[in-house]
Amino acid sequence: MQFPFSINKKWLVFLAIALLAIVGLLVARGCKQENNAAIPTENPSRLSTQPATAAAGTAAQQQSAQLVLLPENPTSNDFLLAVFKGESGRVKYRWEKNGETLDGEELDRLAVKHLTKGAVITVFVDNAGASYSASVAIGNLPPVVQQVSLKNPAIHRGVDIELVAIGEDSDGDDVNFNYKWFRDGSQINFNGGSTLSGDQFSRGDQISFQVIPFDGVEEGAPYEGTAITIPNAPPVFISTPPLQFLSETYRYQAQAKDPDDDAITYALENPPPGMIIDRKTGQINWPLVDLSAGEYRVSIVAYDAQGQKGYQEYSLTMSRQ
Question: Residue 96: which CATH number?
């Protein structure tokens, strides 16, 4: 069956217009995809200091792809996340630690167990025929102070304050400590380390301290202890009693010193029969008459102005001649 020439010409014109429309749609779609690929979805400088390196692929792929590792400055307490923006389709991950492949690690994140101080972690990404990589070094974790205690809690003037610090470092580094001492809020220029000499404070002073841990790389957060109010100190005996005697009277000059420089008075507790002491001077006299043989207990008490007591106790043995 034959159609008139005019009809064939109309069909040809219709087909030509349809083809032009299809071509126009395809061109517009391709331009839209290219423009979309050029717009980054994240700011690489904000995400990582280690931008992706393209090992293979087209120039357009290299420009549009992004591979960063988060966090930017990881430590052994973190896990690593690979953030990849590239072509649609399958994305394959491979991880290395110091150049050695980590078997079984094929996801976009790396477990914390693989992150050790000083290690260099690299992730490799294959996508749409192109390969990319990004690396980061695992940083140091600062040490922490776990506990600080007083070696001798019975503190007063003349008794050193000694601190016992316990620290921890998640990287396994040795932890050392630096110390700062403060009296009534002002730092004491005293280079005694963990021990503050007992002559650096007086009754009523407020003593505080800081313990700063150090792992050889960086310092950790300072530990600040609760302020210590220095209490009154008891008198301390500085004389030694004679334990042998030949005369008919036992004599002993007891002497005590008060660390706070308070005045001292003396007394006897449950003294042997006939023994007396001078309240102000501490002089003891004991006539040795009409005494039975045996052991006699002597207890001397020194009082300061605050009522604090210091004791000296000893025994004397009386034998028959």
Answer: 2.60.40.10
- 187-230: per-residue pLDDT in tens? 998 787 999 999 999 999 999 999 999 999 999 999 998 999 99
Q: How far is CA 91 from the centre of its chain?
A: 41
Angle at 183 between CA 177 and CA 186, to 5 degrees: 90
In a shared domain, residues 79 and 28:
no
Cα separations in angstroms, 262 against 156, 233, 265: 14, 9, 10
User: Mean pLDDT over residues 174-198, rounded?
Assistant: 93
pLDDT at 33: 41
Domain that holds residue 203: 144-229
Gap between the terminal Cα atoms of the chain: 165
Q: Based on the number of CB atoms within 10 Å of its own CB, is 267 exposed (0-12), middle (13-18) or buried (19 or more)?
A: middle
- Verdict on whether the full-model pTM lies above 0.70: no
Mean pLDDT value of segment 169-198: 94
34 and 99 housed in the same domain: no
- Backbone angle region of 243, left / alpha / beta, with phi > 0 → left and psi within -120 to 50 → alpha: alpha
Work out how many domains the chain is built from and give that number: 4
What backbone phi and psi angles, to 5 degrees, belong to 87?
-70, 155
27: its two tokens: 């061109």
Give CA–CA dist 92/107, Å, rounded: 8
Domain ends where: 186, 213, 229?
Answer: 229
Q: Are 157 and 131 in contact (CB under 8 A)?
A: no
